[in-house]
Design goal:
This is DUF2798 domain-containing protein. By secondary structure, the chain is mainly α. It has one domain (about 5-150). It is built from four helices and no strands. The protein has helices spanning about 5-30, 40-75, 80-110, 115-150. Helix 1 (about 5-30) crosses helix 2 (about 40-75), helix 2 (about 40-75) packs across helix 3 (about 80-110) and helix 3 packs across helix 4. The model has no long low-confidence stretch (mean pLDDT about 95).
């Protein structure tokens, strides 16, 4: 895993691209009622803005808070790496999903209006299960493997 600030930045960029792109695809599929091939291309138009939002939120809010909370649950020196990764990942999802859902609600669902709060809550509730399973079973493992290959000599 990342061992310095440069590696942490590379890892975060990789994770944000994978998670944000997949979640955009998921949300477009929800909006259109089904998954279609055009969604893969359509999602690319939202990726730059949501990727920047995701990177900023993760770097400055979610990652520091998730690590701080995780290290109250697990001990890096004694617990297995799997438990540490799991704790950080779950807490990151718990923080990032509502924040990214709020950003998507404001940017892509009509901005601020009378129903903003209810739309945000609905978006978060619909996104949370997908974000959870995507992070734990697909994006997390994929990015860790790619990161280890891209940056040799990492744990």
């Amino acid at each position: 895993m990342p061992q310095n600030r440069r590696q942490e930045t590379i890892y975060t960029i990789m994770m944000v691209i994978v998670m944000v792109y997949a979640m955009i695809c998921y949300n477009i599929a929800l909006e259109t009622g089904s998954m279609k091939n055009f969604i893969f291309l359509a999602a690319l138009s939202e990726l730059p803005i949501m990727g920047v939002v995701g990177f900023i939120l993760d770097t400055f809010i979610a990652a520091p808070l998730a690590k701080k909370a995780a290290f109250k649950l697990v001990t890096p020196d004694t617990d297995k790496p799997f438990l540490i990764i799991l704790a950080i990942s779950v807490l990151s999802i718990w923080l990032m999903c509502p924040m990214m859902s709020l950003a998507a609600t404001i940017l892509f669902k009509g901005g601020f209006h009378q129903e903003t709060i209810s739309t945000w809550i609905q978006t978060t509730v619909l996104n949370f299960p997908m974000a959870f399973f995507l992070q734990l079973f697909i994006a997390g493992p994929l990015v860790r493997v790619l990161f280890k290959r891209l940056i040799p000599n990492t744990k």
